[in-house]
Amino acid sequence: MMREFEIERQFGIKIQNIKPNKGVYYLKTNKGNKCLKKINYGIQKLYFVYEAKEHLIKNGFSNIDRYCLNSEGEPYALVNEDIYTLSEWIEGRECDFHNLDEVKKAAINLAKMYEASKGYEPPENSKLKTDLGRWPYLMDKRVKSFDKMKNIVRKKKSKKGDFDLLYLKNVDFYKELGKRAMNVLMTSDYEKLCVEAETEKSFCHHDYTYHNIIIDKSEDFHMIDFDYCKRELRAYDISNFITKVLKRVDFNIEYAKAILESYNSVSPIKEEEYRIIYAFLLFPQRFWRVCNRYYYSEANWIQNNFINKVNKLQDERENYMKFIDEIKIELGQKE
Question: What mean pLDDT is predicted for residues 52-79?
Fold first, then answer.
């Protein structure tokens, strides 16, 4: 356990109560309720995130989990080798992705964040976090990794496990989807849009999902957990948000239409951006992530967790493919 007195000393607070809550700590202090979080990246990346949040606040997008500064004016505490951040605890409930009205408001919120992000100059002492220009490489690498994982399964001396058999049964389907997504991306204005994003100096949240959207008792929407924010095409945030919502509503296209319409009402999406949104929606990111974690063991889940996740993807496949056909027409795309 981290040494609480160090947190108190560095942030100049008195902790009255502390309890773990979904990977962070909820603190009751003499200066209000706070969120304490141990981060797994370095201080230079933290400066990028800290200043990105301050930039949003300056531009009027202030419903976020702002960092508290320590007695030296820095947005962290160092305890032994560990880095902790402290932010305001935002009281409220998570966004309900089954509720169409809340989904629309969340889409409007995402568009407002994007508008407020423009013109962000990361500080000198920060490490630039960016994925601009990287997606052709990332997609290619991930599609190739499907064959590498296949080889891992084939080379197994012992009996193949349940997950291996499930992987072999599904991999060709998802590899084809990956290739389709790559072709769409390669025939888009991806590079031109990356140059434009570079010029406008915007950034993405990169993990915009229900537990990072908090609705308070006044029904105001708050965006939290900017740990993954980086320079990126907003098409990523839009498509990622669509996928996160739609996998919970059986890929009902009405939700996707509502998201696009709501986003457009604040920040119009350009014609050429739709092709990139379509490429991201096509790419089998979720299948790749589960399998990558299984074979390269980032996650210490039990085998059943992995199996359940692939089974879920298998179960939704028909609805997903129907959605892909519909969204392709909706976005005016030919492949």
Answer: 97
**Cα distance between residue 103 and residue 246, in whole Å:** 10
User: pLDDT tens-digit profile of 306-320?
Assistant: 999 999 999 999 999
DSSP secondary structure, 213-280, as one string? EEE-TT--EEE---TT-BB--HHHHHHHHHHHHHTTTTT-HHHHHHHHHHHHHHSPPPHHHHHHHHHH
Residue 54 and residue 12: Cα distance in Å, rounded? 21
User: Nearest Cα to 189, choosing from 271, 128, 263?
Assistant: 271
User: Any idea how long the chain is?
Assistant: 335
Q: Give the bridge partners for 57, in sequence order.
A: none
Locate 152 and state its tokens.
Answer: 């891992």
18 DSSP β-pair partners = 27
- pLDDT digit string (tens) for 229-284? 999 999 999 999 999 999 999 999 999 999 999 999 999 999 999 999 999 999 99
Question: Contact 280/239 with Cβ under 8 angstroms?
Answer: yes
Residue 50 in tokens: 């800290």
Looking at residue 157, its pLDDT comes to: 81
Sheet bearing 24-29, strands edge to edge: 15-21, 24-29, 32-39, 82-88, 77-79
Chain centroid offset of residue 323 CA: 21
Report DSSP letters for 1-63, one per residue: ---HHHHHHHHT--EEEEEEETTEEEEEETTEEEEEEEESS-HHHHHHHHHHHHHHHHTT---
Distance of CA 60 to the CA centre of its chain: 22
pTM here? 0.95
| Tens of pLDDT, residues 66-113 | 999 999 999 999 998 899 999 999 999 999 999 999 999 999 999 999
285, two tokens: 């990111």
From 257, 258, 255, 237, select the one nearest 247 (Cα to Cα).
Answer: 255
